[in-house]
Amino acid sequence: MENFNYHRPASVDDAVKAAKAKPDAKYMSGGMTLIPTMKQGLASPSDIIDLGALKNAGVSLGSSLVIKAGTTHAEVAASADVKKAIPALAGLAANIGDPHVRHKGTIGGSIANNDPAADYPAACVGLGATIHTNARKIAADDFFTGMFSTALEDGEVVTAVEFPLPKKAGYAKFPNPASRYAMIGVFVADTAGGVRASVTGAGSGVFRAKDVEAALGNGFASASLNGVKVSAKDISSDLHASAEYRAHLITVMAKRAVDAAK
Ligand SMILES: Cc1cc2nc3c(=O)[nH]c(=O)nc-3n(C[C@H](O)[C@H](O)[C@H](O)COP(=O)(O)OP(=O)(O)OC[C@H]3O[C@@H](n4cnc5c(N)ncnc54)[C@H](O)[C@@H]3O)c2cc1C
């Protein structure tokens, strides 16, 4: 690991100022991705801007569910408001990684990192969430732009994620047995604007599964997915699973997600 300067600003404004002053600075929330990548030499920021002193954590439930960026996966999993409003989201958080990762890793860090197999991007896109930053609000459909990339500008900091309340939602993932990251994860939601279905783990980033959405638009039931065959074209293939296997898993996980939806 290379040497770096450490900052612990007390406000979002100070964090943004510190980040803008140093072109190679990186924010740190839980450090669950940043620290391992620094240890492996895959990232060597000149400055770490620790967001911990912002104490920007917590959940509020009104006409939507708002989760502040510094809320850990364990806090989301345990939140009575999340369990009441979107139980699928609490279940998703409860199955991220291991207890250490869940107690340090945050929703803001997860979506800013946008790992192509991460769970929260699927929930954000599946539910049609809005990402709040220090500067603006970004629709989840526009936020996740590709592998480990997002619509965030240099120095822009995620402050919260706002989820509209669905009629019903469900998530199912086929986890890699070592990391618990999704080999395939599918989030389905019956929303005021129609059915949404998103997929993680299948390619360069989260995407909406239009064929799954169309089938579920005819009835939000797993039987509606009988015969839906997702094309393996553009689906990733690696030592863990072939593209054909992952494509097959999309329909299987979509059915499980619908069956689990509440
Ligand atoms: C062993 C292991 C297993 C895991 N399993 C899973 C899994 O099953 N599913 C899953 O989804 N994830 C998994 N993860 C990832 C985990 O969820 C991380 O917590 C998450 O990816 C990053 O969150 P963090 O708060 O630790 O972010 P950090 O590591 O602190 O930061 C990650 C990136 O986001 C940036 N960043 C952080 N906060 C902000 C912010 N507020 N605004 C703008 N940029 C910001 C940082 O600069 C950095 O580039 C796993 C990680 C490990 C180590």
What this model shows, in words?
By secondary structure, the chain is α+β, with helices and mostly antiparallel strands. Among the domains are: 1-50, Uridine Diphospho-n-acetylenolpyruvylglucosamine Reductase, domain 2; 168-260, 2-Layer Sandwich (Enolase-like, domain 1). The chain contains 11 helices and 14 strands. It has helices at residues 12-21, 34-39, 73-78, 80-85, 87-94, 99-104, 107-113, 120-127, 140-143, 210-217, 243-260, and strands at 5-7, 25-28, 47-50, 59-61, 64-68, 130-133, 137-139, 144-146, 149-150, 158-164, 168-175, 182-191, 194-200, 207-208. The strands form 4 sheets. Strands 4-5-10-6-7 form a 5-stranded antiparallel sheet. Strand 8 and strand 9 (149-150) form a beta hairpin. The longest helix has 18 residues, at 243-260. It is globular, with a radius of gyration of 18 Å.
Helices and strands in order, then pairings?
Blueprint: E1 5-7, H1 12-21, E2 25-28, H2 34-39, E3 47-50, E4 59-61, E5 64-68, H3 73-78, H4 80-85, H5 87-94, H6 99-104, H7 107-113, H8 120-127, E6 130-133, E7 137-139, H9 140-143, E8 144-146, E9 149-150, E10 158-164, E11 168-175, E12 182-191, E13 194-200, E14 207-208, H10 210-217, H11 243-260
Parallel strand pairs: 1-3, 2-3
Antiparallel strand pairs: 4-5, 5-10, 6-7, 6-10, 8-9, 11-12, 12-13, 13-14
This protein binds flavin-adenine dinucleotide (FAD).
Flavin-adenine dinucleotide (FAD) binds at residues 26-34, 36, 51, 69, 96-97, 101, 104-106, 108-110, 112-113, 115, 118-120, 152, 157-158, 179-181.
Helix content: 25-40%
Low-confidence stretches: none
Order of helices and strands: EHEHEEEHHHHHHEEHEEEEEEEHH
Largest beta sheet: strand ordering: 4-5-10-6-7
Query: Shape from CA axes?
Result: globular
CATH class of the domain at 168-260: Alpha Beta
* Estimated share of beta-strand residues: 15-25%
Ends apart, CA distance between termini: 45 Å
CATH homologous superfamily assignment of the domain at 168-260:
CO dehydrogenase flavoprotein, C-terminal domain
Tally of contiguous helical segments:
11
Class derived from helix and strand content: alpha+beta
